[in-house]
Amino acid sequence: MTDREQMTLTSAGYYVSQEAPIVTDNPVATPASAPPDILRCAYMELVVTDLAASREFYVDILGLYVTEEDDQAIYLRSTEEFIHHNLVLRKGPVAAVAAFSYRVRAADDLDKAVAFFTELGCEVRRSEDGFVKGIGDAVRVIDPLGFPYEFFHQTDHVERMSWRYDLHVPGELVRLDHFNQMTPDVPRAVKYMQDLGFRVTEDIQDESGTVYAAWMRRKPTVHDTAMTGGDGPRMHHVCFATHEKHNILAICDKLGALRRSDAIERGPGRHGVSNAFYLYLRDPDGHRVEVYTQDYYTGDPDNPVITWDVHDNQRRDWWGNPVVPSWYTDGSLVLDLDGNPQPVIARTDSSEMAVTVGADGFSYTRRDEREGKLGNQL
Amino acid sequence: MTDREQMTLTSAGYYVSQEAPIVTDNPVATPASAPPDILRCAYMELVVTDLAASREFYVDILGLYVTEEDDQAIYLRSTEEFIHHNLVLRKGPVAAVAAFSYRVRAADDLDKAVAFFTELGCEVRRSEDGFVKGIGDAVRVIDPLGFPYEFFHQTDHVERMSWRYDLHVPGELVRLDHFNQMTPDVPRAVKYMQDLGFRVTEDIQDESGTVYAAWMRRKPTVHDTAMTGGDGPRMHHVCFATHEKHNILAICDKLGALRRSDAIERGPGRHGVSNAFYLYLRDPDGHRVEVYTQDYYTGDPDNPVITWDVHDNQRRDWWGNPVVPSWYTDGSLVLDLDGNPQPVIARTDSSEMAVTVGADGFSYTRRDEREGKLGNQL
Amino acid sequence: MTDREQMTLTSAGYYVSQEAPIVTDNPVATPASAPPDILRCAYMELVVTDLAASREFYVDILGLYVTEEDDQAIYLRSTEEFIHHNLVLRKGPVAAVAAFSYRVRAADDLDKAVAFFTELGCEVRRSEDGFVKGIGDAVRVIDPLGFPYEFFHQTDHVERMSWRYDLHVPGELVRLDHFNQMTPDVPRAVKYMQDLGFRVTEDIQDESGTVYAAWMRRKPTVHDTAMTGGDGPRMHHVCFATHEKHNILAICDKLGALRRSDAIERGPGRHGVSNAFYLYLRDPDGHRVEVYTQDYYTGDPDNPVITWDVHDNQRRDWWGNPVVPSWYTDGSLVLDLDGNPQPVIARTDSSEMAVTVGADGFSYTRRDEREGKLGNQL
Amino acid sequence: MTDREQMTLTSAGYYVSQEAPIVTDNPVATPASAPPDILRCAYMELVVTDLAASREFYVDILGLYVTEEDDQAIYLRSTEEFIHHNLVLRKGPVAAVAAFSYRVRAADDLDKAVAFFTELGCEVRRSEDGFVKGIGDAVRVIDPLGFPYEFFHQTDHVERMSWRYDLHVPGELVRLDHFNQMTPDVPRAVKYMQDLGFRVTEDIQDESGTVYAAWMRRKPTVHDTAMTGGDGPRMHHVCFATHEKHNILAICDKLGALRRSDAIERGPGRHGVSNAFYLYLRDPDGHRVEVYTQDYYTGDPDNPVITWDVHDNQRRDWWGNPVVPSWYTDGSLVLDLDGNPQPVIARTDSSEMAVTVGADGFSYTRRDEREGKLGNQL
Question: Which of B59, B165, B255, B261 is the best residue to mutate to test the D interface, defined by the most D CB atoms within 10 Å of its own CB?
Answer without folding.
Answer: B165
